[in-house]
Amino acid sequence: MTTTVMADGQLTPEEQKRLTADMHRSLRRKKTRAFMLVAPLVVFILITFVAPIATMLFRSVDNPQVATYMPNTTAALAQWEGDALPDEATFAALVKDLTEGRKDKTIGKAATRLNYEKSRMRSLITGTARKAARLTPPYKDKVIKIKKGWGDVDTWRVIKRESSTFTKSYYVAAFDMKTQPDGEITVLPDKQQIYIKLFWRTVWMSLLITALTVLLGYPVSYLLASLPLRTANMLMILVLLPFWTSLLVRTSSWIAMLQGQGVINDLLVWIGLVDDQNRLTMIYNATGTVITMTHILLPFMILPLYSVMKTIPPSYMRAARSLGATPFTAFYRVYLPQSVPGISAGAILVFILAIGYYITPALVGGQSGQFIGNMIAYHMQGSLNWGLAAALGVMLLVLVLGIYAVYNRLVGDNKVKMG
């Protein structure tokens, strides 16, 4: 295509518009190609990361059981004030829901959900459902005769409160609180509190494990970075060796080593540090969890430390020594500040991995070494209270993000790098 040029060397307005349009088309094609290249990664992140988190957020407030499986009772209670027992029409709606729910085998789901809020609700509902089909009007006195719990106003208050399709009850329970039948939220007695204590235990044990990996990993990384490349590569194989071994095998090995008749106790008895009758208890408690997880997560500290230390020129230390600094002063004033990015990267990596662990604490932690992840797994697989498990998961996610925000504020992104 011929380009028209004016006498002063400038393009004509028509040619300028055409050239601008061609540039925009070329830019759109480049953006489209770039988007198509990253589209598989975006889809993968949406499916494996965003969707599970969104599902967890939704499940933590989702509450469809009562409204779905007791629809007539839910509708009848909509206008109930909650001061006295409901009227005959509400009891008739209850009998209808119990009869249909037992026939369809769905009433147990609503009963289980209500039992989370008030004890004995499941037996109250299922016990009445077995006899509901034989009842005839009027229902009120007959239903109360079957189960006295129906004569308690609090029972009906709980049903009405949980008839909403969304609830805050899971978060109330996750914060070790309880919603009273009248709607007031109260804190559970100290002896009944579980989850907040587990959160604090998870945080401080994760911090302890992180600190131990720094203390153990720093000298190892320093040695690897100081040795010749050939020797360092051979020793690095020993660091990476645990990655080639099953996590279950490594944990089981520590169980054999830490138990009362294990290798470590036998060694302590043999050298005379511990009496045979007073062997150390290092398994199925917090000690076992800390020791085992420190060993498992140690490579995640060594690798970022080594990658950063390898970039620090050895001449810096020699220059500091030549200027009169002692070995300790040269290390403290010259080498250590340059290795802080590796410490920061390794610490945040180990801490986030540790705070979400549940397999190792489940195997070696016993009662005092459990993490909040173990309780989440229990509610997912044992009690099947997925709503509470989701609420605990959301709280753990918010806790990790909050700790990371504080860490980022104190340390900064510029001091976190992998080499």
Describe the overall structure.
- The chain is mainly alpha-helical and 419 residues long.
- 68% of the residues lie in helices and 1% in strands.
- Strand 1 and strand 2 (185-187) form a beta hairpin.
- It has a two-stranded antiparallel sheet.
- The model has no long low-confidence stretch (mean pLDDT 89).
- It is built from 19 helices and 2 strands.
- It starts with 12 loop residues before the first helix and ends in a 9-residue tail after the last helix.
- It has helices at 13-59, 65-69, 71-77, 88-104, 107-117, 121-132, 140-146, 153-161, 169-174, 195-226, 229-240, 247-258, 263-270, 286-309, 315-322, 327-355, 359-364, 372-381, 386-410, and strands at residues 177-179, 185-187.
- It has 3 domains: 12-59; 65-189, no CATH class; 195-415, MetI-like fold (Orthogonal Bundle), CATH 1.10.3720.
- Helix 18 (372-381) runs antiparallel to helix 19 (386-410).
What would you say about this model in short?
The chain has three domains: 12-59; 65-189, no CATH class; 195-415, MetI-like fold (Orthogonal Bundle), CATH 1.10.3720.10.
Task: List the topology elements.
Layout: H1 13-59, H2 65-69, H3 71-77, H4 88-104, H5 107-117, H6 121-132, H7 140-146, H8 153-161, H9 169-174, E1 177-179, E2 185-187, H10 195-226, H11 229-240, H12 247-258, H13 263-270, H14 286-309, H15 315-322, H16 327-355, H17 359-364, H18 372-381, H19 386-410
Antiparallel strand pairs: 1-2
Helix pairs in contact: 1-19, 3-4, 4-6, 5-6, 10-11, 10-14, 10-16, 14-16, 15-16, 18-19
